[in-house]
Amino acid sequence: MSYGAIAVTSGFAWWFPVLMGALVLAASSEFLFVGIIAAGGSPFAALLAGLLVNARHLPFGLAVSDVLGQGRRGLLATHLMNDETVVFALAQDGPARKRAAYMTCGVGILVCWPVGAALGALLGGVVRDTGAFGLDAMFPAVILALILPAMKERPLRRTALAGAVLALAVTPFLPAGLPVLLALAALPLFTVTVRKEAVR
């Protein structure tokens, strides 16, 4: 609901978060897209940032390749791929249980996410100041919740910190959305750190 409300109060039409919710079906990239546009960033930067966030679906696909299936069913299953469906599938024992968990979770999200966005869009049409209800804090909170579990690994933690410092340093000088993309320049640090850890 917060996603729909924030999108509408940021100037998007009510149907936009609903359509994105059904077609993109990836909360973090949708929040990021809306957040960058709302901050005055270009649609190109927002689209590129969303695609980069969704690049995690490549290893997801490898992790649940036995669950996805072939043909039309495989296409639907691929569309339903997100953090939750993959986690629930991998937590099960046996191909049948994995497939059932993946599809049940995925279809549930496919229904609930756009419906929640629609309700939020209605809310956003009534409540103009989403910040008064803390809805504006949902975007950074969601992103933080997604990355925190991975921060247990030292190489990833150092790389993320370096990227954050880089993004903060250039924020006063670049348009909204570009500092986040520039933070990717810290990625080589991950490889260097991993190699040092391996040598030890």
Proportion of residues in helical segments: over 70%
Kindly state the mean pLDDT as a whole number? 83
Uncertain residue segments: none
Tally the helices: 13
Report the sheet-strand fraction: under 5%
Structural class call reads mainly alpha
Please give the largest β-sheet. Answer: none
Q: Any overview of this molecule?
A:
By secondary structure, the chain is mostly helical. It folds into 2 domains: 2-148, no CATH class; 153-200, no CATH class. It is built from 13 helices and no strands. The chain has helices at 2-9, 15-23, 27-38, 43-53, 57-63, 65-68, 71-79, 83-90, 95-126, 138-147, 154-170, 178-182, 187-199. Helix 2 (15-23) runs antiparallel to helix 9, helix 3 runs antiparallel to helix 4 and helix 11 (154-170) packs antiparallel against helix 13. The longest helix has 32 residues, at 95-126. It is flat.
